[in-house]
Structure formats: structure tokens, C-alpha cells
Predict the 3D structure of the following.
Amino acid sequence: MGRQYPIWNIITACIYKSGKSYGVRERGEVAIKIGTSSSNSHSFLTHRVTVKKHSKTLQEFRFYVDDKLIKKRFVNNGNLQKSVKGY
């Protein structure tokens, strides 16, 4: 039985035969490092997705790269919207 999460991360990488995914309830953050190995790597960027409930039916999702807001979207009653008046 699947769980319900407002944020889903689907990972596609050469090490997997198929996509992998996991759910997040409020905030998901990924730190990406670059280099030659796990012990010889350097910070490259972080990305983060957050969700905020404004009411019982309205949620706001935000996507950040290195703490800079890149995109935000609203979901109202399960419908995706680009913007909502007053927000």
C-alpha cells in the first residue's frame, strides 16, 4: 500500500535499471557534491522543495537552488495553479 506525500522525488540515474522514488511530507533537501569519490568531493549545490498549507484545500510548493527561489506553484483542491490572488 502506497503512502500519500505531498512531495515526490523521482530519481533517474545510470546506476539504476529503473527510476527510484520517495515521498516527503514538508521539506526535502538534496546536497550535490562533485569530485572523484565520496571522500574527495566538494559542495556543488543544494536544492530544496517545501510545501506550506494555507488552508484546508490550498497548498503552496516552492523550489529553491542554493537558497534562491526558482519556482512556486499552488495546488487548490488537487488542481495545479500558477498563482493565487493574495499570495
Summary: The two ends are 35 Å apart (CA to CA).
